[in-house]
Amino acid sequence: MIGQLKGRVDSTQEGGCIFDVNGVGYLLACSRKTLDALAGRDGVQRVLVETHLRQDAITLYGFADAAEREAFRALIEVKTVGPQKALIVLSSLTPDGLARAIAGKERKRLAEVKGLGAATANRIVDEPAMQKWAVGRATPDADGEGALPATAPERGAEADAVSALVNLGWKQPQAVAAIARVAKRLGEDATLDALIRDGLKEMAR
């Protein structure tokens, strides 16, 4: 089984590239984001590889980093989401963006991925294994908002604010994430009312 390759991009094509390793060209299926990353680098580079064996074919999937390969592995475990649909998702969303969308149950955002569809988007969001993968893995957005925490605060204004959002009908993981981002933005002196107010705005985004 091939786990990684070191070489150069010989050529790119729709959905993949030819990766030259000492004169041997490996056909890799890749997301658009990985292709862009590879094209933007000079010299010898490393590509992580996921090898899939079938009776009639051997397919190599290439990834620019471990985070994308991990997201790919998680996605293909969802019923009806095969490798090609997983690459479609990862061509539109970074692993961190995907984690935030799943943890936040942003069904519309996933459904808007071209070629995915609402039914598959819902299946991804509702899959318990995907929720487990996503919660706690999201990293800061470009605007500096914080990562999704894995556990709820036990006491204080943040805990009360999370409880208030849950009582209003929001799921706890999303409420925890929203209040964590708001608390980071408002600072230690944030009041309960401010946390709840901005938390509701956060959830409505």
Structural summary, described in words:
A 5-stranded mixed beta barrel has the order 1-2-3-5-4. It folds into 3 domains: 4-63, OB fold (Dihydrolipoamide Acetyltransferase, E2P) (Beta Barrel); 66-134, 5' to 3' exonuclease, C-terminal subdomain (DNA polymerase, domain 1, Orthogonal Bundle); 156-200, Orthogonal Bundle (Helicase, Ruva Protein, domain 3), CATH 1.10.8. The chain is elongated and about 65 Å long. It has 10 helices and 5 strands. It has helices spanning 32-39, 66-75, 83-92, 95-103, 107-111, 118-126, 128-134, 156-167, 172-186, 192-203, and strands spanning 4-13, 16-21, 24-29, 45-53, 58-63. Helices cover 47% and strands 18% of the residues. The longest helix is centred in the last third of the chain and has 15 residues, at 172-186. By secondary structure, the chain is an alpha+beta fold.
Task: Draw up the topology in text.
Blueprint: E1 4-13, E2 16-21, E3 24-29, H1 32-39, E4 45-53, E5 58-63, H2 66-75, H3 83-92, H4 95-103, H5 107-111, H6 118-126, H7 128-134, H8 156-167, H9 172-186, H10 192-203
Helix pairs in contact: 2-3, 4-7, 8-9, 8-10, 9-10
Q: What is the third-level CATH name, the topology of the largest domain? A: DNA polymerase, domain 1
Radius of gyration, taken over Cα atoms and rounded to an integer in Å = 20 Å
Tell me, what's the shape? Answer: elongated
Alpha-carbon distance between the two ends: 43 Å
Residue-averaged pLDDT: 84
Approximate strand percentage: 15-25%
CATH superfamily of the largest domain: 5' to 3' exonuclease, C-terminal subdomain
